[in-house]
Amino acid sequence: MESEIINNTEIESKKRIYHFGEKIRSVREKKHLTLKTVALQAGVSESLVSQIERNRVSPAIDTLLSLANVLDINLEYLFEEYNRRRPVSIIRSGERRTINEEDIMFEEVSAPAEKDGQNTLESYMITIPPKSRTHRGSYGHLGKEVGLILEGSGILHYENERYELDCGDSVTFSAGAPHTLENTGDVPLKAVWTVTPAQKFLG
């Protein structure tokens, strides 16, 4: 019996409580309707409408339909966020995908989601040995890039300009122009880079 109670408690704790009272109140106020007016037209008490708007009670389906009808609310509007997932994505340190381009290594930090289309975003760590440089950006591509130098120093070659970057420096630029990152120091250059839309780890 005790195990049944525990199991039921676990199930209840996993239930998602969804509130839409704020939406009902917002629509009512925009239409300049009082609680009393809405309650009378919906055939319920003013107190009940007030409690629903404050998320104190969950209305029966027929009550909700009546309120939606009075306020001319589309039910999809009320429940549009109910099934919207907000996942948390974790990539463990020992499970990162890596890409090697000659002697340069890219380690995935944030994976792009294909469903985001042109809004995909990826983040990765770059390790560039001394006297080496990246190559894939040398012709430019769509989107923007943001980089943060974690260790070492180098130069961002952007079009015909050179920008010196030291440990702790960050840089943001349009990726449409040719660009490469060169390690000019004597130790590996390590940086975190974020790119949108995704280029390397998509797919």
TrEMBL record:
<dbReference type="InterPro" id="IPR010982">
    <property type="entry name" value="Lambda_DNA-bd_dom_sf"/>
</dbReference>
<feature type="domain" description="HTH cro/C1-type">
    <location>
        <begin position="24"/>
        <end position="78"/>
    </location>
</feature>
<dbReference type="InterPro" id="IPR011051">
    <property type="entry name" value="RmlC_Cupin_sf"/>
</dbReference>
<dbReference type="InterPro" id="IPR014710">
    <property type="entry name" value="RmlC-like_jellyroll"/>
</dbReference>
<dbReference type="Pfam" id="PF07883">
    <property type="entry name" value="Cupin_2"/>
</dbReference>
<dbReference type="GO" id="GO:0005829">
    <property type="term" value="C:cytosol"/>
</dbReference>
<protein>
    <submittedName>
        <fullName>Cupin domain-containing protein</fullName>
    </submittedName>
</protein>
<keyword id="KW-0238">DNA-binding</keyword>
<dbReference type="GO" id="GO:0003677">
    <property type="term" value="F:DNA binding"/>
</dbReference>
<dbReference type="Pfam" id="PF01381">
    <property type="entry name" value="HTH_3"/>
</dbReference>
<dbReference type="InterPro" id="IPR013096">
    <property type="entry name" value="Cupin_2"/>
</dbReference>
<dbReference type="GO" id="GO:0003700">
    <property type="term" value="F:DNA-binding transcription factor activity"/>
</dbReference>
<dbReference type="InterPro" id="IPR050807">
    <property type="entry name" value="TransReg_Diox_bact_type"/>
</dbReference>
<dbReference type="InterPro" id="IPR001387">
    <property type="entry name" value="Cro/C1-type_HTH"/>
</dbReference>
